[in-house]
Amino acid sequence: ASTAAQPTLYDYSDVLYKSILFYEAQRSGVLPPTNRIPYRGDSALDDKGLNGEDLTGGWYDAGDHIKSTYPMAFSVAMLAWGYLEFKDAYEEAGEIQNMLDCIRWGTDFLLKAHTAPNELYVQVWFGSYTAINGH
Predict the structure, then answer these.
(1) DSSP of 40-107, one letter per residue?
(2) Which residues contact 68 (CB under 8 A, 6 or more apart)?
(3) pLDDT per residue over 68-122, tens digit each?
(4) Range with the lowest mean pLDDT among 14-18, 58-62, 105-109?
(5) What are the strands of the beta sheet with 128-133, ordered from one edge?
(6) End-to-end CA distance of the chain
(7) Which PANTHER family match (predicted)?
């Protein structure tokens, strides 16, 4: 019996490319010059918190116009973990910079949503918000 590796049925480089592209299609806010989704433009530029905090950016959740910090935090954590575990695969696919940009996009919004030591905006939609205030 041969011990040679069996060829795979999947092009995992294409899977990584399309997975990251999915997150790029969900971006909210001012899109970067590196935007690879030609039909997407800037969106939700008026997203603000109770005291006028800038809540632009992040990803839309479930294909709608809501941004939720809990699912977004989970997604960022899983993306980062996957990148750390399989960095060589992202490198081989030529997707390292796109993956790092993807992780940063979600992380930047999460930092914006944490507007005070005991305050976190957990949902933003159409310029509205839901906040958790620890006071």
Answers:
(1) ---B-TT-B-TT--B---SB-STTSSEEEHHHHHHHHHHHHHHHHHSHHHHHHHT-HHHHHHHHHHHH
(2) 61, 122, 123
(3) 999 999 999 999 999 999 999 999 999 999 999 999 999 999 999 999 999 999 9
(4) 58-62
(5) 66-68, 119-125, 128-133
(6) 67
(7) ENDO-1,4-BETA-GLUCANASE (PTHR22298)
